[in-house]
Amino acid sequence: xxxxxxxxxxxxxxxxxxFAEYVAATHYDETKHAENPELLLSILRTRDSFISRVSHxxxxxxxxxxxxxxxxxxxxxVNELVDQLNGLG
Length: 89
What we know:
There is one protein chain. The protein has three helices and no strands. The chain is mainly alpha-helical. It has one domain (4-88). It is elongated, with a radius of gyration of 15 Å.
């Protein structure tokens, strides 16, 4: 990532896409109405958590190691959310 602003923008865009997929899966599939409010809250909390973690790095770690770990854990969390979204539809 080039800087914190770009990282935050990417996290927000992915959060918006996950939210849109949730809405599509719950409202546009007439055969299955599988709303899961816990999943929606999880999407929102994940986005908020990672945005705040970008602004406040942990002391004691080098910046490169911290942001690498942040990106890796974000990717892992997004993959879990996508798997849950695939289970809805």
